[in-house]
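Chains adopt folds. We examine one example:
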Amino acid sequence: MPDVPANGEILVEVFSPDGSRRYVPIKETPFFIGRGDGAGNHLQLSDPRISRRCASIVAEGGSYEIQDLGHRHGIFVNGEKIDKKALANDDVITFGLDADSYKLKFRNAAADATVQTMLTRIGDMSAGESSSSGLGKLRLLLEATSLLHSQLPLDSVLGTMLDHAISITSADRGFLLEADSSGSLRVRLARRKGGGVVPTEGLNPSQTALRQALDQESSVITEDLNRADLELQAAQSIIAQSLRAVVAVPLYAKQHKNPQESLIGPTAKHLLGVVYLDSRRPAAFSKLDRQILDALAVEAASILDNARLVERERERQRMEQELSIARQIQQALLPRGFRDFPHFAITGIHTPCLDVGGDYFDVFPISDEKTAILIADVSGKGLGAALLTTMLQGALSGMTLGADPARVFNHINHFLCGHSEVGRYATMFFGILERNGRFEFINAGHPPPLLLRGGEVTNLSNEGSTPVGLFDEAEYVAFEEHLQPGDVLALFSDGITEAMDSDRELYGVARLRDALAGQGGAALDDLQKTVLKSVETFTRGASQADDLTLLLVRYRGGGSADTLSAGGHAIGPGNL
């Protein structure tokens, strides 16, 4: 008789061709399996048909996985050929050979300990319960709890546990009702006596029994409804279906300790669902029946709770993947290094406060003589803002085909206002810089750029209109400014001027002016570092709630002065 494994051990039970068996603990991984000891195997099998090193068991995040290392006959788990597979308690491992070879059984003694814990919950059988009947019900309980460690689909596991509950109570039918996010119950599974599946549509469990179980936060077990309280006796569904026995066991998620619990009081129980059973015959539930029902309910709650945690983790991973894709798309749409323009130099930076942001900028040639410069800030953050920035960027880049910018702005505004369900608007500054220094621009509610000229800092212009997508009646017109060689334009989002320190004081335009003042001769990269350092010093590491975007443009010159207009006046929508 082999030694019984200790609780908590992970091991392999080895069934030899001669009928003997032994336990081999897995004390380290990879745990190698193969013929003989020459290959450094932890488990050595004396069968010439088995490869010298045929398989390994490795620990993977708290679970164990078996891998085929090239065994010529294949590695099988529960009769299925595998390359690698996660192992569950009692999984059988074979080597693609006849019955006269070795067979292994993976044993997780910690999982066996779960069954022992279940038996502890059951306690002693009641004196009125026959030994054979009680042991039969305990066997059903053990079968149900062993499913916890199987690889079967979730509904299959829950369905079998429901079958066992029906069998233990001799009920006619049983339902598993699952709670949605609002706490409403819906029938997830329905079974009848004998293991038959019942369609979930049109089922009518006793709402009175369900309500009582939820109000009491404990099981409602009624053996004979003729002797139950008047509310249950008078329940419409009970009368209509001639029910005589009803069981409703609420399922609650395991309570997790919260360090703040002592401050805010005990947290409410989180309802997962209800196990409901009924019968048209009166029942006689022994103490053991009730204990087994309670134990099954605990395990069913554990299965549902774990399934929800897994689903939540999958949803989190899916969202992370989508955010990662959105971030990659957004970053790909930003200029990746600026081309060399003969008449101006440019540098820029965009730092989103979330994975994806609502700010963006772009620089693109319209013709050999004209270059578009754009900065925008979409309301909100995250995926919604990123989608709208992408749409705006596509619409404005179409101006390389010769479309009038003011007309494009008006069209975008009407489109967004006409689709109010989008729920987004954007501030934008769009300018076209010509080789001769003529700078024509539209400001749609964006902070006006600062003009650094000869060490002095002024606003480019305070003229502008409302953000696009805010008011349908808004009309957008273009304005004009003449840039002189050496002039620097600082285009920025309010993530800079509204950056806050720990006292929630704003950085403000005045500090940005001070950072730029006297820096007219500085290289643009150095000027950008100066501004960012100024913001960083002011905020002193305080977390920020908005994207930070900065675009610096220095006009080098290269045009004829007699073609230039005086700056600062409207030129109408058709003259850009």
